[in-house]
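Task: sequence design from structure.
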């Protein structure tokens, strides 16, 4: 079963991306982002540097890259897939709140 906590953190990761990356705020870009992310097996790092990703090419990640990439690291850990066998991967809400992004400043 999927813990509701993990679904909510995925949603929080998507919202965080939309807040910090203006090109992800319109419907078309968000739809294309989801399609491209799925094609990259939900791996944000792979999506970001994939030369065929039209959305990533236009994106400004400077806010997420600030503070040694704390925001980017958090978003990756919120949006990634969860391994159903080991239950590892996506952060829970409580683990996300302990992430260095919230402690940096």
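Answer:
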């Amino acid at each position: 079963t999927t813990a509701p906590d993990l679904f909510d953190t995925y949603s929080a990761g998507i919202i965080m991306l939309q807040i910090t990356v203006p090109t992800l705020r319109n419907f078309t870009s968000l739809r294309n982002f989801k399609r491209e992310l799925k094609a990259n097996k939900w791996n944000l790092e792979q999506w970001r540097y994939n030369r065929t990703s039209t959305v990533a090419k236009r994106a400004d990640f400077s806010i997420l890259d600030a503070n040694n990439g704390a925001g980017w690291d958090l978003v990756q850990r919120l949006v990634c897939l969860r391994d159903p066998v080991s239950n590892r991967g996506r952060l829970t809400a409580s683990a996300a709140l302990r992430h260095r992004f919230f402690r940096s400043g």
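The chain is about 65% helix and 0% strand.
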